[in-house]
Every structure is written in structure tokens, then in C-alpha cells.
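Why this split exists: single-chain examples teach little about how molecules sit against one another. For that reason, every record in the complexes split bundles all components of an assembly together and asks for one structure covering all of them. Below is a record exactly as it appears in the raw files.
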Amino acid sequence: MPVSTISINTLRYDSELCNGCGMCTMVCPHAVFAPNGRVAQLVRPEACMECGACRVNCSTGAISVDSGVGCAAAMILAALTGKKEVSCGGDTDASCCG
Amino acid sequence: MTEDQQVDQAASMSVVDPAGVRLADSRITFADRLDHLLARWGYRRNWHRVEPGLYALGNPTPDVPVFVTANYTLSFDALRSALAGVDGYILVLDTKGINVWCAAGKGTFGTEELVRRIEATRLSRVANHRRLILPQLGAAGIAAHEVRQRSGFRVKYGPVRAADLPKYLKRGRATSEMRQVRFTLTDRLVLLPLALVHALLPAAIGAAVLFLLAGPGASLAVIAAVLAGVALFPLLLPWLPSSDFSLKGFILGGLVALPFALVALLGNPATAWWVRAGEALAYLLVFPPVTAYLALNFTGATTFTSSSGVKREMLTYIPVMAGMFGFGVALTLGLFLAILVGG
């Protein structure tokens, strides 16, 4: 499996702010973070899919990432309908993710 | 459609006890399997729901673990079937019938709903501990530290796959292997029915129009291009060269269009050479972008593409797709005119 289509993404990590809780290493589905002594270490930034789980669960704000759906269909739909929010389908109309 | 109608059999077969706790078991019945099959084929996408709330699994005491999931039957059933022989509670959040990961991205499998559902089910009275086991993929919507502040419950992220729960419960923690998503051939295969259902109507219309305008060859070519994009592409994904979905799609689409181009070029030696060459070129210009576009649209179904990456790919490749397609259509029209004028 290719690591990702991406070499550039919006993931930023400030180890100065890390309190070593280890939450990011647990929630990341692509092992982007790894525990490294006192603080977490960014080990596979290129594998980040910008799901946002690490940022949401980082209580010290050490991680920032513009999370969003990596879905061309959703982006095209948003562009065509002039919607600002790119997401999986509407609330009632079910498409791929409902 | 009322709420009652939307409730799936898995939930409706459960009996509500006086405390408002519903009963669940780990058995997957024929009716459940049928429901899963229909969900995979996209039949009544909104109907595969479980009633949100608290469910008792086995013979729970106040000490047993509490598992949290989404109110999509495939999510709920994956959880309860993985917990055969385990006594526990299942807290089902209202995610509008959407699976855990997608709902977490949307925010419906989220901190707000979790805190609200803990209160609504009076979970703190049912359980004498303050721990919840959540699916790891729910983390994109749940801020564990906020849940603790607001409800007193400590969120533990379990494995990505419910099937790993027995091992997780035994070890008390998830291994790094359990923490990573995969995208296996099976994972890609189960997506096929829905992709085919979505592609059926547009492909049929395209084939009918091309049959009338350009004949059976072009009609068959559009079916081949669409099938390549929605079926062959997901299956061959890891083995197609390049990491860009569009480029993978162009390569696959080119291979699929090639036989049509060769037949156009070599199949009718009596036709003028420039007509045959023009037709062959038209096949290679019009159809590979169709496959590439469908391939690009598959990004959302994968487990690893990022928003930034997809955006970059769209900016790079959509102009190429549009250009090739437009040029191919113009060339075809030009050929028609030339044949008409030239007799």
C-alpha cells in the first residue's frame, strides 16, 4: 500500500508544548507519532491523512492540523454546489459516508 | 419515514428493561447478515440503524467494561459479535446511522454526543467505575480530556478493529499493530457493490448515447472505462504504478482503451488511414480521463488519503483530464464532419 498520495500536509507539532501523555501515539491510525522518552516524536509525518484525532486529543495544544476529508468526490460536490464545508454527504441525503 | 421504521431489527428484537437498558447479544442472525448485505449494496442507506442508548451484553454487573459505538448496524454488530462471552455494557451514540470513523470526522460521534448520552442513560448510576472503551477511529471526534472534565468518565481508546477487542481486553492495552488502519483486498472488495450501484445509471446512459451517436465500439468502451474506474481500480490499487490516484487511473484507463484503439486502427483496412488513426486517437483521448476521474473519486473511500494531498492532486490532474477529454470529443466531431464533407 502506498504510504499516502501526499508528501505535503498541514500537520505541525511543537514538542516544546508536549507533556508526554502519549495520546497522539495511541489515536493515530498511521503511526505518525511514536513515544520517545519524555515527549512524543513525529516519526512518519508523510503518512498523515489529516484526520485530526491527534490534535483533538492533545490537551496542551502541541499539535495543529487542518483536518478534513481526503475525498475528491466531496470536494467536487462542495465546489459545484458552492458549499463551504466539505464533508461526506448531507444530513439526510446519504452518499458514501451518509 | 418515522424513527421507528428506521430502527433495525438488531435493536427492535431487544427488550427494554425497566431501567431503560436494552438487551443485546453476540449472535449474528440471518436477519443481521441480510441487513449487512443490503447496507453494502446501498439499499435504503438510512435504514441500517440501531436505537441509541445503553445495551446490556451477557450478564453485566456494575464493574464490567463499557464499550461505546455508533448507531450503524455494521458498527454495532461488529462490536457485539467481537464480544462473544464478554459481559459488558454497550453505549450506542446517535451518529445518524453512520459508521464510527466517518461520524467522528463529521463530529456526530463526538464529545458533545458522548457527554449527552452518558447523562441521558444515567451511566454513572449503572456503572460503579468511570472508564469507557472507545474505538480508536472515534478519536477524531472525541476530546478525551474534555469528556473527563465534563462527565468524569475516562476515555480509553481500544483497537481500530473490533475483532481485536478480546486480545485488547486480555492484555489491557493495544499493540501498535492493532492501532494501525489497513486497506486490504477484502476491505476494498466490500466497497465494490456500492460503487457498481452508483456507476450503473451514468454508465448505462453514456453507453446508450454513444451507441446511437458512434456505434457499439464506443458504447462498449465507455462501459469498460467506467468498470475500470470503479471496480478494477480499487482491486488493483496497490499494484498500479505511482502514488497519485489520477495517474494510476490514467495508466489503467490507457490500458483498457488500448484494445479499442487498436481495433479502430487495424480492424477496418478498407477505411481511409486518417479516419482510422483519428478514431484510435479519439479512444485514447476520451476514455482514459473517465477512468482517471473515477479513480480520483475513490480517494474518499480509502483509509489513508489526506485533504491536502487530494486538493493538490485535483489541481494537477483535473485540467489534464478535462483537456484530454475535450480534445478527444472535438477530434471525434471533426472526424464526423470530415467524413460527411469528404463523402
